[in-house]
Design a protein that fits this description.
Enzyme class: hydrolase
Oligomer: single chain
Catalytic activity: Hydrolysis of alkylated DNA, releasing 3-methyladenine, 3-methylguanine, 7-methylguanine and 7-methyladenine
Keywords: DNA damage, DNA repair
Largest sheet: none
Structural class: mainly alpha
Protein name: DNA-3-methyladenine glycosylase II
EC number: 3.2.2.21
Distance between the termini: 18 Å
CATH architecture of the largest domain: Orthogonal Bundle
């Protein structure tokens, strides 16, 4: 593995351990170096951003997010509740995503869900609490806990970009083997599953000529 090109010491140490036991990740790290850990604002704004980004390209997601933030005072939940569905649709949001954002805003403003409580829960409990929200599945919950809470040992199941990156770097799982790949990764990459995911996302960014994570 080559020298540091980004990333904190904790991430770099995890990368060294992963590279020593995974040829695919070692291949990626030789080119990209350790990734910078993606840290984001949490709470309603953080989860809403991930919901908006679901199943969209980076460029499309960023464009829609910028418009929605401008129209809702930075994704303030009370502003989201006051903004009409037609207005939100005009910004590029689909009807399901509008419903998810509005229901989540109501849950937060009316006290049915408190993001601060997640910090008192372990990874499994926190994921289950998030998955109880409308529009939040296992992938969304994992990404929130990785990016917004800095948890390090979660794997975002169902992320086809991770499988594609693994294949690009010499992996042997087929393109249709996402379930098998997820099951393998969850076992093989523990206790650094989130770091492994960041390395693979970094591979996608490198291949597509985008800035690293």
């Amino acid at each position: 593995m080559t020298g540091l090109r980004g990333g904190d010491r904790r991430t770099a140490e995890a990368c060294r351990e992963l590279a020593a036991r995974c040829r695919v990740l070692s291949n990626i790290l030789d080119v990209t170096g350790p990734p910078r850990w993606r840290a984001r604002e949490g709470g309603y704004q953080g989860l809403s951003r991930i919901i908006i980004e679901q199943q969209l390209s980076v460029a499309s997601a960023n464009a829609i997010l910028e418009r929605v933030q401008a129209a809702t005072a930075g994704l303030d939940p009370e502003h989201v509740l006051r903004t009409s569905e037609d207005n939100l649709r005009s910004l590029g949001l689909s009807r399901p995503k509008i419903r998810y954002l509005k229901v989540l805003a109501a849950d937060v403003t009316e006290g049915r869900f408190d993001f601060a409580e997640l910090q008192r829960l372990d990874d499994r409990q926190a994921s289950e609490a998030l998955e109880g929200l409308l529009g939040v599945g296992r992938w969304t919950a994992a990404v929130y806990l990785l990016f917004c809470e800095g948890r390090r040992d979660l794997w975002p199941r169902g992320d086809v970009a991770l499988l594609a990156a693994h294949l690009m770097a010499g992996g042997t799982f087929g393109r249709q083997d996402i379930k098998a790949f997820d099951a393998w990764a969850e076992e093989f990459y523990a206790p650094h599953r989130g770091v492994a995911a960041h390395i693979l996302w970094g591979q996608i960014a490198h291949v597509r000529g985008r800035a690293p994570l």
